[in-house]
Amino acid sequence: MSEVKVISTKAAPAAIGPYVQGKVVGGFLFASGQIPIDPASGALVQGGIEEQAAQALKNVKALVEAAGSSMSKVVKTTCFLKDIGDFAAFNKVYAEYFTGDAPARSCVGGIDLPKGALCEIEVIAAL
Length: 127
Fold this sequence. Notes:
Layout: E1 5-7, E2 22-25, E3 28-31, H1 49-66, E4 74-81, H2 87-97, E5 104-109, E6 119-126
Helix pairs in contact: 1-2
């Protein structure tokens, strides 16, 4: 069995429940979902989907980099939107973080998210 390494960084929000920010196993990072919390203040960022998506993606980037990977090595994302009507605006921000060959992706809308967030993003990245 491959060694499992827990990933933790102050550059992304601390876990708010019984989970870790991410785990590395078998050459991949499996990251917990990131919501738009400012890691410095611990508060949900104010604003609409654009501002919240940008913060969630900054958190994802910090976690991916803490694992020793990069956004270009993200192979799969799962995105959750409170309102599927935000899909186009979310995609505009998402495209700024995933240039070139984008990762495979699933996107689910119409669900409640922790702390009233408008979006949550989880990733799997190669190291």
